[in-house]
Amino acid sequence: MKQRLTPQMPLAALKSFNEDVVHPAEKAQLDSHTTVTTEATGPSPLPDREEVRIIPINLIDKSPHQPRMIFDPEAVDALAASIKEAGLMSPISVRQLANGRYELIGGERRMRALESLGRKEITAYVKIGMSDIEAAIGALADNEAKAGLCDYERGKAYQRALSMPDPVDGSPLTQRVLARRIGVSDATISRCLAFFDLPAEGIALLDERPNLIGAKNAASLVKLTKQGHGTIAVQALHRIKDGVSEQGAVNWAIAQVNRLHQTPRPVVPFTLHGVHIADISTDGVKVVITCKNGFSPDDMIARIQTLTEAAE
Fold first, then answer.
1. 127 within 8 A of 14, measured Cβ to Cβ
2. Residue 2 falls inside a structural domain
3. pTM over 0.90
4. Residue 307 and residue 305: Cα distance in Å, rounded?
5. Percent of the chain with pLDDT over 90
6. pLDDT per residue over 29-59, tens digit each?
7. Which one of 153, 187, 210 terminates a domain?
8. Total structural domains in the chain?
9. H/E/C letters for each residue in 259-290?
10. What is the rounded distance in angstroms from the CA atom of residue 122 to the CA atom of residue 60?
C-alpha cells in the first residue's frame, strides 16, 4: 500500500471537505468558531485572516489555478439535486482580492451546482491576505483531497505551481517543497510532469482530452519520444483517441519502434528440382517462408513434410 504524506500547507485555516456533506455536529462546531456575515464592502486591512461570509456569486471569479479541467455535467446535476434537498453543508473557499472581488480556491462544483439552481449567494470561507502561490497550492490541495483528478490535470497544476515565484524572495518553489505542501510524493510529481516531455501535438491532444492516458502508460511514450520517435508516440495517442486501449496503443508504438531498429535479414531462395519455389528469411525467432511461382502455403507444408520424412 502506498504511503500518502500528510499535507503541510501554509493554509492552516483553509478548510477542506469531503465533497459537500458535513455532519450536523461538525457544522455546529464550525459555527461556534466562526461568524457568518453578509457581504462586506472592500478588502479587510488585516492580512492572513479567515472569515465565513455569505457573498454574492457574481462577485466570485473562477480560479486561474483550478487544476480540474473536466467537470462532469451529470455529477454537477446530482450535486445540485442534493443541495436543493439538504442545502449546502460545506462552504466553498475563496480569497479576497484587492479590488473587493473574490477568487475561488476550492468548491467550483458546489458553486456551479448553486448557479444551476438559480441561487445568487453562497456561503464561503474567505481567506484574507493570501498570496498567488498560496492560492495556487490551496486550489491544488483542495482537489488532491478529493478523488477525480486525472494525472494530466495534476501535471498541469504542478507545472503551474512550480513556475510561480515565492512572494517573499522571488525564488521558485521546489518540487520537494511542493510535494510536502500538498501531501504527495516527489515521485508522483515527477511522474505527472513527464507528460510535458511529449511532442507539442501530443500535449495539445491532452489539453483537449486530459484523461486520454494515465501517467504510467504515458511514461512509455515519453521514453520513445526521447529516443527520437515522437511521431510514433503521437500516433499512439491518436489511436487511443480513436478507441484503442492505452496498453494496446503503447504496445503498438513499442512494436513499431522495434521494427525500425531491426537489422534487415538476408533472404535465402529455396529451390526444389531446380525450381525457385520460395524465399526464406527470419524475423526474430520466426522463420518466414514466402511462396513463389504458383506454389501455395499448403503445397509448401506438404513438401516440407515429405522432405522431413525422407530425412528420418
1. yes
2. no
3. no
4. 5
5. 21
6. 334 334 444 344 333 333 457 778 888 888 9
7. 153
8. 3
9. HHHCCCCCCEEEEECCEEEEEEEEECCEEEEE
10. 10
Which of 153, 186, 215 is the last residue before a domain boundary? Answer: 153
Phi, psi for 234 (deg, rounded to 5)? -65, -40
* Same-domain status, 207 and 272: no
Q: Tell me the average pLDDT of the chain.
A: 76
CATH of the domain at 98: 3.90.1530.10
294 and 202, same domain (yes or no): no
**Residues 276 and 257 both lie in one domain:** no
Going from the C-alpha of 187 to that of each of 5, 44, 91, 175, 176, the distances in angstroms are 12, 40, 33, 10, 9
Domain that holds residue 122: 24-153
The closest of 195, 170, 168, 190 to 179, measured between CA atoms, is 190
The whole-number pLDDT of residue 73 equals 72
Residues in a beta bridge with 289? 280
Per-residue buried b or exposed e for 180-217, using 16+ beta carbons within 10 Å of the residue's own CB? bbbbbeeebbebbbbbbbbbeebbebbeeebebbebeb
* 3-class secondary-structure state, position 95: strand
Q: What is the pLDDT of residue 123?
A: 85
DSSP 172: B
| Domain-located, residue 12 | no
Query: Given phi > 0 = left and psi -120 to 50 = alpha, else beta, which region is 48?
Result: left
Which amino acid, 56?
P
